[in-house]
Amino acid sequence: MSSDTKKVDSKELFKEGNTVHIVHNGAVYTLRITKDNKLILTK
User: Per UniProt, what is one Pfam family of this protein (predicted)?
Assistant: First the structure.
């Protein structure tokens, strides 16, 4: 990872639950934490 890459702690993203919606080029993606504490990104 280059030094100019932004790092975000997942605790900040998921502080109010286990799902985050991300909008990229007009499409909505869902990032969620699984029961095994893994991250899944779906469209």
Answer: hemP
What are the pLDDT tens digits along the chain (43 aa)?
677 899 999 999 999 899 999 999 999 999 999 999 999 999 9
Question: CA neighbours within 13 Å on the CB side: how many for 42?
Answer: 5
Contacts of 43 (CB under 8 A, 6+ apart): 27, 28, 29, 30
1 DSSP 8-state letter = -
pLDDT for the residue numbered 23: 98
CA distance 24 to 10: 18
